[in-house]
Amino acid sequence: SPHQAEKAVHQKKEQSRTKCRKARRRHVQLVAEFNRRQRKNIWLETHIWHAKRFHMVKKWGYCLGNSPTEKCYRACYRAMTKHCLLQDLSYYCCLELTGKENELLKQLTRVCSMDAGLTFEEACCLSGRFEGSLDLYRADCYPEAILGPVTFIWKPRDGSANRQLWIWVHPALKQDILQELKAIFQCSEPGEVCVPDPVTPSVQEEKQKAVVQSLGKRRKEDKEGEKAVPLKKIIGDGTRDPLQACSWVSPATGVVISDRSMEILRYRLIGPWAHCVLTGTLKAAALQTV
């Protein structure tokens, strides 16, 4: 009816008056909006930078940059050949294995083969100095039933009996490889569940909206809005629900499998200046002896 239409227009005008651009762009409001938009597709840490310069696609539960909006192919090629080009590979999933070295290697030999090349027992990789890459197969099925390619890094020995192994897998292969690793290590009991926050997101968002609306009425005294605590970032990744278990324990061997996806960022530097960029950016930590 005309009366309802007029009422809707009036409410819209009132809402637009209370939420000016400054209120909408306040940090706490932006974080609430970004968290809401990440419920279906997780963003990488560099999402904002890519979203302004790339055509974004939704794949494997993530929002990724597919192709640049400008003709920068020559610039990228020039950076790779003469300078340094950085790629964000944080959408790759990280599976962490913790346990005794002999127990880990005993079962991992079942999912790879020396006939296919490198294995987890390679001396240079086992020491933790280099990263290795290989193809994983279903247990005792080589050369059939291939699962897919992975890269792995052993944490250097620190004197303890346990070792840590990080296996990086593509998100499309993660569930199959994770189920196979859980099967060979007999990890059936969930170790921990990653809970984002005791308060549900909907309740949080309502509180944030109430804060912004109350602050929007007195725009000249909105310094409290800058100090407001933003919403907690969504825990999890595009391949796992945040309320599902993120680690599993084997009662027989004590091996623990943990899903570290989106907890460890991964960047790739390409070009002759890659080492110079790393040495100029990172500083070696001082050795501490206990």
UniProtKB/TrEMBL annotation:
One of its GO terms (cellular component) is nucleolar ribonuclease P complex. GO terms for biological process: tRNA 5'-leader removal. InterPro entries: Pop1 (IPR039182), Pop1_N (IPR009723). Pfam families: POP1_N. Residues 5-99 form the Pop1 N-terminal domain. It comes from the Eukaryota. PANTHER family: RIBONUCLEASES P/MRP PROTEIN SUBUNIT POP1, RIBONUCLEASES P_MRP PROTEIN SUBUNIT POP1. This is POP1 protein. It comes from Eubucco bourcierii.
